[in-house]
Specification:
The protein contains 8 helices and no strands. Helix 1 runs parallel beside helix 6.
């Protein structure tokens, strides 16, 4: 499904990758779209190669005006690139969720859940957490879980 927010500080490459993958209602942005979009917004010239290098961690010290242009294009605060505080991690998690929502099965489940009562949604969330536990996936806190022993669920 989605990667959880790591316990270590996020890298610039991870932050940029999350922005590329977060295109709402469509496939992720292409390097050409981002470079052209930055140009159209009056930003500095940035090549598709430079964008690829930033996204993949080849270049880790971009020009300030490139980061400002990326922030403007994606609608993110410039502090997203510099801080690793709770707000940055929350934005990163939201971007990862947007990327996951492109998965048609996840989108279908989310759409079907629309209009259900808060109590029913809480029950669904508990079922999902239990299924993640059974499959050994991290919980909502990013902690690894081991699949339960078969005997654990027996009375």
């Amino acid at each position: 499904m989605t990667d959880e927010t790591p316990d270590r500080p996020l890298t610039l490459a991870e932050k940029i990758d999350a922005l590329f993958r977060s295109a709402p209602g469509r496939e992720e942005y292409t390097y050409a779209e981002v470079a052209e979009g930055i140009r159209r917004l009056g930003g500095p010239t940035i090549s598709t190669t430079q964008l690829w290098e930033l996204r993949h961690g080849v270049k880790t010290n971009p020009r300030k005006d490139h980061l400002q242009a990326l922030a403007r294009f994606f609608g993110a605060p410039i502090t997203y690139f510099f801080d690793d505080d709770e707000e940055t991690r929350q934005l990163y998690a939201q971007l990862k969720l947007l990327a996951a929502m492109r998965d048609s099965q996840i989108e279908r489940i989310a759409l079907r859940a629309s209009g259900l009562s808060p109590a029913t949604l809480a029950t669904i969330a508990q079922v999902i957490e239990r299924m993640r536990q059974i499959e050994g996936l991290p919980n909502g806190n990013g902690e690894e879980r081991k699949p339960p022993d078969d005997d654990q669920d027996k009375p």
